[in-house]
Amino acid sequence: MIPVCRLEDLPEGESVRVDTNPPVAVFHAEDGQFYAIDDTCTHQDASLSEGWLEGCLVECPLHAAAFDLRTGRPTCLPARRPVRTHRVTVDDGVIHVHLMAEEGTAA
User: Fold this and answer.
1) Spacing of C-alpha 44 from chain mean position
2) For the chain, N or C: smaller number of CB within 10 Å?
3) What is the Cα–Cα distance from 107 to 94, expressed in whole angstroms?
4) What is the pLDDT tens value at each position of the chain, 107 positions in all?
5) What is the per-residue DSSP string for 41-85?
6) CB 64 within 8 Å of CB 77
7) Which long-range contacts (CB under 8 A, 24 or more apart) does 26-34 make?
8) How far is Cα 68 from Cα 21, in angstroms, rounded to an integer?
9) How many CB atoms within 10 Å of residue 9?
């Protein structure tokens, strides 16, 4: 469990990059929920935390690939592969991300 920031530091519609390996992007979506996905677009090396958030979709700032924050699946080309999703919790006003293991590795 990795602390990200305080609740008041991540307003609705905003995102923050967490410098883990690989980096993770945490979003405060318009539905009030928090979502975390791998920060790097699977199409090309771009930071999704710098993308545009609309509903539960984030659009890559480089080539406009979009990913569903709930599933990590791309919703349009040019991305074809999903990004990993991670569980987010809030404890005592602090947002935490729980990293999912990569395939073939231990958490």
Assistant:
1) 16
2) C
3) 22
4) 999 999 999 999 999 999 999 999 999 999 999 999 999 999 999 999 999 999 999 999 999 999 999 999 999 999 999 999 999 999 999 999 999 876 544 44
5) -SSSS-BGGGSEEETTEEE-TTT--EEETTT--B-STT--SPPPE
6) no
7) 26/88, 26/95, 26/97, 27/53, 27/58, 27/69, 29/53, 29/55, 29/56, 29/69, 30/54, 30/55, 30/56, 31/55, 31/56, 34/10, 34/88, 34/90, 34/95
8) 22
9) 13
The one-letter code for the residue type at 52 is W
Q: Which residue has the tokens 């991305």?
A: 79
